[in-house]
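User: Could you check the structure of this?
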Amino acid sequence: MTRFGRITIAMFTLLALSVSTVRAAPPGVGLVAGSIGAYATTARAVTYDRRVPAGAVATVLRLSGPHRTLVSLTPVGLLPHREYGAHVHTMPCGAHPAEAGPHYQNVPSSDPASANPDNEIWLDFTTDATGTAIALTTVDWTFTERQAHSVVIHEHHTHRGGAAGARLACLNVDFR
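Assistant: Sure, the predicted structure tokens are below.
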């Protein structure tokens, strides 16, 4: 991992620790961390495939301002040296991968051209030798009352039109 990557992870870890020590996150800040395992109605994170091993951990951080949102995903304990895709989805994680619904879109549309990193949250990443990565994206919008409820880890990096292969795991996140 590069020096920049280590500094970025350290920065987000410090921010996460400071947010987790207060009773409620400040407005515009959201933080969720979960150990990935089998589905249960109370599970924070679910694996659907051995390519995201049970026991791995994922952390999602959201920082929102009046007109901009930053989202980061930090998985630990995935398969080493592997490309994954990840997106924010509209529904909570369920017993089956499809239950997380479609990608959250700032401007909802059935036009495939709307599935792009300006209208959705794309968090593609490649793990290092330890199965750790960090993905970070910033968009020029904030989440609306049409809440987003999860981050889904996909089989490979995102291709044109938002396709990233099978849904391998899911982390419940409230993006309010």
